[in-house]
What does this fold into?
Amino acid sequence: MTSELPDSSTPPLPNSQTSAVVKRLYILATFLAVGFSMIWLLPKSESMKPSRLARNLPMQFASFQGKKVSVTGKELDILAKDTEFERAGYVNLDDPSQPAVEVSVVFSGKDLNNSIHRPERCLQSQGWNFTKQRKVVIEGALPDGSDLPFREIVCQQSVKLENGKTIKTMRVQYYTFFGHTAITEDHYGRTLQDMKDRLFKGYDQQWAYATFSMPVTQIYADQGLMKGPGVFTLEQTEKMLEDFIRQLAPHVVDK
It folds into this structure.
């Protein structure tokens, strides 16, 4: 005796269901086509709105004295040709024991993707290991009294000296991006802001990627390399860097 097995094949859909599926597919295809076509409708501008960060860093403000630092040829070769730089080192004349603050600003050109990028990539490629990362907000630092957001990176690196000895170094770096009106420490937030401004406000904008950094000298004291009033912990270094930014901001950020 043989038993009849159930038919495992899928029965054909009724004409009404087939028609509904085709209709949904057609709507989806139309929606995707319209969505992708919006790329070509984004406004194009012949010129960019300038960053609200000033083009030139002041060489003297409050108790700080600055000195221009040249940009290396390697950086110039990597980034787009219309990228602009501003870099300086600052010492505190009222307290010479404080480590120097290095300020570096990169102004984007038309080719934004090859002008500025996430600094984490560069630091890691240079051999720095990250020990701390967080968002920092310096309250009331801007000329209009609003807050100034930053991304903090604390990193360490082993350096081999000419005598063959290897020492450890540590730096604190704060960075953020200044657009035409917006300021954000988030790389992807910057990209989203760029898209929104271009779509809804009809302009491209220049971004200035600004970094502020100081060495943490406590690490040298821990290795027996220095002592005295110039030794500062990580927490002290963070505070000095934030105080420096708070004093510099009114001189370089438009309201």
In short: The longest strand covers residues 148-160.
